């Protein structure tokens, strides 16, 4: 029957029959339907991990609630802080139509008549996510996910399952773009869709497949088929990104919400109104290294830049197992190779990690070793046994250096190292910056997270422990890169002076003037 014919028949239907039809429809109709457009595409998306984000007012929260009410049996809906849950809970009750089945005692929960569970939770501090360990949910929805730590999200992703046969399991991340380094991890997790520099960009809604490599990192694979890695069979999971748009939300598009977004100051306007993931971020007022300087250094990077110089120094940040990485940064003048990282039990064997450093060491380059964590002992013994020139780096050590422009002193060696790297990246210096950094989102986040303050008239850089609390991980890649510069030049001069009877080369702005012959 054509639509016109159906409408005509409905118009002539007796009132009693029309009322009965209305009652039957209301009984059968779902509690929630997606808006036509991106929200419907997201609702029907087959990805195991979906990021639905971008502009404010695009219906991100509603998508998570709609899936919980119509497609899933046990759902966990999360905000970073409990105080931010109120709007999500109130919207859930609005969709539900009553407070029947709702328990507001924290953590709030709602049980529907068709036996669906909506559980509302929060993970304000690193470690709070572990309270949900072992609890089965077939849907986990993260509202404003960029406010979460990456470690919290990845922990939750490991506990999505269902005992109900045929029940689909998935995770959905909803958010506007990040405004600072704390949420920048989401760009790394969805690089094919969000990072304009990715060599193989993905279309919106296109499925890509990923496994976790032996070092605990995402590795993209060609498809959904099983992958053999380190003798183990891994099953890839799919992920994708679909942009949310205010223009596709009929409940807000005709309100003054657009004018409110237009009135936002930058970078909020670019983030919330335009959904710009690459340009929305704003540096902290007291950020040690400006983000633009790091991006410029990554844009300068050439795959064969190592050919210009002998290997100048190696920065090595060991780890003692657990979640932290052992990282190796290879430096040739101002050019840095891609960071080598190892994670997990492999980092427990310091001698084996030292052997890995020796595998990539060239030109008698000195090794700068971070001894602050207490994990460097076995590696240093291995370097001694092999006659490798090495320098111990302790961030808590005293500094006698001064900042170039302000002539301020540094509170410790860590502050000196970070500030000297800032000076080496400064594009306003004579001849510009010689630093070239690999395109590594995690390295970019590491270098642009620390802040600084003046304490007793000296420059003090944020501690590694405080950064770990904010990022949910240690900034190991950034530390390795900075050590390779801060102590690498001095160690290189010392090594070359031995070899050339005191004729050591000059070092200018981290560019060791020891060219290959």
SSE layout and pairings?
Layout: H1 3-12, H2 15-28, H3 38-44, E1 49-54, H4 60-70, E2 74-79, H5 86-96, E3 102-103, E4 109-111, E5 117-122, E6 139-143, H6 150-157, E7 170-175, H7 185-189, H8 191-194, E8 208-212, E9 218-221, E10 227-229, E11 232-234, E12 237-244, H9 257-262, H10 268-273, H11 291-300, E13 313-317, E14 325-332, E15 335-336, E16 340-343, H12 350-360, E17 367-370, H13 377-385, E18 390-393, E19 409-410, H14 413-425, H15 441-448, E20 452-455, E21 458-461, H16 464-471, H17 476-486, H18 488-499, E22 507-508, E23 511-512
Parallel strand pairs: 1-7, 1-12, 2-5, 2-6, 6-7, 13-17, 17-18, 19-21
Antiparallel strand pairs: 3-4, 4-5, 8-9, 8-12, 10-11, 13-14, 14-15, 14-16, 20-21, 22-23
How would you describe this structure in keywords?
single chain, 517 residues, alpha/beta, Rossmann fold, Nucleotidyltransferase, domain 5, 2 domains, ten-stranded mixed sheet, six-stranded mixed sheet, 18 helices, 32% helix, disordered C terminus
């Amino acid at each position: 029957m054509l639509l016109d014919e159906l409408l005509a028949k409905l118009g002539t239907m007796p009132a009693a029959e029309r009322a009965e039809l209305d009652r039957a429809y209301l009984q059968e109709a779902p509690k929630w339907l997606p808006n036509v457009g991106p929200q419907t595409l997201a609702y029907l998306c087959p990805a195991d991990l979906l990021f639905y984000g971008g502009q404010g007012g695009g219906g991100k929260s509603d998508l998570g609630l709609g899936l919980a009410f119509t497609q899933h049996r046990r759902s966990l809906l999360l905000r970073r802080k409990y105080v931010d849950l109120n709007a999500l809970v109130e919207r859930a009750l609005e969709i539900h139509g009553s407070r029947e089945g709702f328990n507001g005692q924290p953590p709030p929960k709602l049980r529907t008549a068709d036996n669906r569970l909506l559980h509302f939770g929060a993970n304000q501090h690193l470690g709070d996510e572990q309270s949900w360990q072992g609890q089965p949910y077939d849907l986990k929805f993260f509202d404003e996910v960029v406010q979460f730590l990456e470690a919290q999200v990845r922990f939750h992703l490991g506990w999505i399952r269902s005992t109900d046969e045929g029940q689909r399991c998935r995770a959905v991340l909803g958010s506007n773009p990040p405004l600072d380094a704390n949420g920048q991890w989401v760009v790394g997790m969805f690089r094919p869709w969000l990072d304009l520099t990715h060599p193989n960009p993905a279309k919106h809604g296109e499925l890509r497949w990923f496994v976790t490599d032996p070092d605990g990192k995402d590795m993209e694979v060609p498809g959904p088929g099983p992958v053999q890695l380190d003798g183990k069979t891994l099953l890839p999971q799919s992920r994708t990104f679909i942009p949310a748009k205010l223009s596709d939300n009929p409940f807000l598009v005709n309100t003054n919400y657009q004018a409110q977004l237009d009135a936002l100051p930058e970078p909020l306007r670019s983030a919330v109104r335009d959904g710009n993931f690459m340009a929305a971020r704003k540096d902290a007022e007291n950020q040690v290294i400006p983000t633009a300087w790091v991006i410029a250094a990554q844009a300068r990077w050439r795959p064969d830049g190592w050919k210009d110089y002998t290997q100048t120094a190696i920065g090595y940040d060991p780890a003692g197992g657990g979640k932290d990485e052992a990282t190796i940064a290879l430096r040739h003048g101002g050019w840095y190779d891609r960071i080598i990282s190892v994670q997990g039990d492999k980092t427990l064997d310091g001698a084996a990690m030292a052997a890995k450093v020796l595998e990539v060491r060239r030109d008698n380059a000195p090794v700068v070793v971070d001894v602050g964590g207490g994990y460097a002992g076995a590696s240093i013994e291995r370097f001694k046994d092999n006659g490798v020139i090495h320098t111990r780096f302790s961030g808590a050590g005293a500094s006698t250096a001064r900042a170039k422009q302000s002539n301020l002193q540094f509170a410790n060696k860590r502050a000196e190292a970070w500030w000297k790297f800032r000076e080496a990246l400064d594009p306003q210096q004579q001849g510009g910056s010689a630093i070239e950094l690999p395109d590594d989102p995690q390295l970019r986040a590491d270098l642009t997270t620390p802040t600084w303050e003046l304490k007793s008239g000296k420059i003090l850089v944020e501690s590694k422990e405080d950064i770990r609390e904010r990022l949910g991980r240690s900034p190991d890649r950034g530390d390795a890169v900075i050590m390779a510069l801060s102590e690498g030049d001095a160690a290189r001069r010392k090594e070359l002076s031995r070899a050339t009877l005191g004729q050591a080369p000059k070092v200018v702005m981290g560019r060791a003037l020891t060219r290959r012959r």
